[in-house]
Amino acid sequence: MSNVIYTPPDQVRSVAVLGTGSVGASWIALFLAHGLEVIAFDPSTQAAERVKAFVADAWPALRELGRTELASPPLERLSFATTPAEAARQADVIQENCPEHLDVKLALLAEVDAAADPGKIILSSTGGIPPTAMQQACTHPERLVVLHPFNPTHLIPLVEVVGGEKTSQAVLDWAMDFARLLHKQPILLHAEASGHMTNRLQFALVREAVACLVEGIASAKDIDAAVRYGLGPRWALMGSLLTLHLAGGPGGMQGILDHTAKAIQDWWTPKTTPVLTPEVIAKLVEAAQEVSRGEPVQDWVNWRDRGLVDVLKLQEKLGA
């Protein structure tokens, strides 16, 4: 539908947030910080109370990052609709965060697509379902695009923009621009894949961490320390490809490959592909207790978010 006119990203005033679990609540905090009105929907009777508590906890970090100057969250801008269709009709943009089950998403998207004006873009937070699979529920599939965030959504800059077979170029461009207005760092994926791309990258490392644990190469604590103190500091500044390029010294990428290509090929070939058997799951649960020292998850979440603020401020300072 090339004649459809979408509200320009900088003129969006309200967002329908469908699903207010950890991802949805995090989006809500970010939207409120950027002065947007939020019309939320969630079937849980405790949703409103849970979201308000989440936003209050997230607000200090958002202020520290300069995303808002307000001392407290403007909860008067947050309301809850009784149905997804009602939320979709009221808002300028629709943002979906329902469970990662295709049948659930199809049912929700069919309802929303039928209720919302064709000029309203639908953004999905799905972490792995290809958008083409979801577009089958839509009469207006060209306006559906994946805007996949990373936990915690209100802090981590990266979002993956993924179009389906019927997503229009105008909608892809719109999603990239809207993400930038939210102080996000959007990347555009050129092909659909299960899990998109960044999950593919991170779970390659997770797979190797689990393999090292299963093989008894090191303790859980030291496996995490290798990432935190060896890989993490560089990765906060640059990605794997630039890291490899710089490892070659003056010769760059060509230099490192001339000298160590055979070794690199051996190092990145998986020695073990762990299977999540009951025994391995038990080992991972035990490992989690070791690396967290048995302290509550929420305490670690609070510690992580405080630390992320400092890391993100450093990234913004250094730029590219």
TrEMBL record:
Transmembrane segments: none annotated. It comes from the Bacteria. The keyword Manganese does not apply. InterPro entries: 3-OHacyl-CoA_DH_NAD-bd, 3HC_DH_C, 6-PGluconate_DH-like_C_sf, 6PGD_dom2, D-isomer_DH_CS1, NAD(P)-bd_dom_sf. Keywords: Oxidoreductase. Residues 195-259 form the 3-hydroxyacyl-CoA dehydrogenase C-terminal domain. One of its GO terms (molecular function) is NAD+ binding. GO terms for biological process: fatty acid metabolic process. Pfam families: 3HCDH, 3HCDH_N. Residues 14-189 form the 3-hydroxyacyl-CoA dehydrogenase NAD binding domain. This is 3-hydroxybutyryl-CoA dehydrogenase. It comes from Pusillimonas minor.
